[in-house]
Amino acid sequence: MLDSKMIEIIKSTVPVLEIHGQTITTTFYQAMFKNHPELLNIFNHANQRQGKQPTALANAVYAAAVHIDRLEEILPVVKGIAQKHRALGIRPEHYPIVGENLLAAIKTVLGDAATDDILEAWGQAYGIIADVFISVEAQMYNEAAQQKGGWDGFRRFVVDRKVKESEVITSFYLKPEDGNEIASYQPGQYITIRVKPENQEFTHLRHYSLSTAPGHAYYRISVKREDAILNQPAGIVSSYLHNEIGEGDILELTAPAGDFTLDQSKQTPVVLLSGGVGLTPMVSMLETIVQNTPERKVTYIHAARNGSQHAMKEHIIELTNQYSNLQSYLVYESPEMDESCDKSGYIDLPWLQTIVDPQADFYFCGPVPFMRAINQALREWGVPEERIHFEFFGPADTLENTASE
């Protein structure tokens, strides 16, 4: 443990981290990849280019500094990050590399202000935090490998079916090449795919939510093709999956992971809200509820730009007609002339208040602006934090007036 002097030094750097945190983490990633280019086989290049990963790390470092004398308070955040680390294959030997380059970045950005005492304190603090991550991840690696149908590292899966769900979303049904059992999962969890397109120097890893309830002999992911827009290039992995991968091809997967999961122990009403491809974990949760707890009331609300962007529409209609405990609603931002929906434009609080129970548990996923709007509406309605659940695709961002789960 850190002594009181070291804790005091760490806390004294909080204002500096608030101002310079992202500059430090950006410098850190640049130096680390220069010194250890092999790590580019693990990290998401797009998140680096768009600044999402440096921002997420800066927020994590800041939180660690604020809570350095009570790290147990950020343990839920640690576990969420550790889930992604396990899914990516982050191992104990990576932590010294990160620590060395992070301290060097602090020194580079802060210059003379990064005194020997500050660097020593942060060195000790990083060692303690790294040990927590390593311990938590060791347990997760063991659980993933030892569970029924589980495995360690990457396992080869065959694309059994490839189904176009909309103009931009395609589902991939994945069966293990070895024909053996596969690990079950919690509704809301994801698998991680590793690919190496022919024109790419490094392998690329991506998390994709499992888009159906557990219990099948396959995994299903539903992937949005990220096309080039403005100054943002097309998604490397999503384009590769859509354009190059077909039925019979092989994909490498790590075992299911993730801490954004449906609480199946409760009987309270559930409201699931999704925007765009954010429907993937919501559909898994929805199928699980109607199949396993048909007495539990569930409302599903999906927002899409229009019908051409809307995946799994007929499937949701079939479920709604089949199960009396399910109500579903559709919101189109810009519906075409012949398209029907329950609301045009955007989901807003006055409309939500007419269709859902404020005592429900709310789960939502989608683009960050969508999630910020939903979160703000629920907070204005007075829904308590413990009944608001959400997940970011990619590095954790922040929603106004709350911390990410």
Nutshell version of this structure?
The chain is an alpha/beta fold and 405 residues long.
What does this structure look like?
This protein has helices spanning 4-12, 14-35, 45-49, 52-66, 75-88, 94-110, 116-146, 236-243, 279-292, 313-322, 349-355, 368-381, and strands at residues 155-164, 169-176, 190-195, 204-209, 219-224, 250-257, 270-275, 298-304, 326-332, 343-344, 361-365, 388-391. The protein has 405 residues and is of the alpha/beta class. Helix 10 (313-322) links the parallel strand 8 and strand 9 (326-332). It starts with a helix and ends in a 14-residue tail after the last strand. Residues 400-405 have low confidence and may be disordered.
Amount of helix: 40-55%
Poorly predicted regions: 400-405
Order of helices and strands: HHHHHHHEEEEEHEEHEHEEHEHE
Query: Separation of termini?
Result: 26 Å
CATH architecture term of the largest domain: Orthogonal Bundle
Order of strands in the sheet with the most strands? 4-3-6-1-2-5
Strand count, sense and closure of the main sheet?
A: 6 strands, antiparallel
> Could you report the average pLDDT, rounded to the nearest whole number?
91
| CATH fourth-tier homologous superfamily of the largest domain | Globins
Tally of alpha and pi helices: 12
Query: What is the name of the CATH class of the largest domain?
Result: Mainly Alpha
Protein name: Flavohemoprotein
Active site: 95, 137
Enzyme class: oxidoreductase
Binding site for NADP(+): 276-281
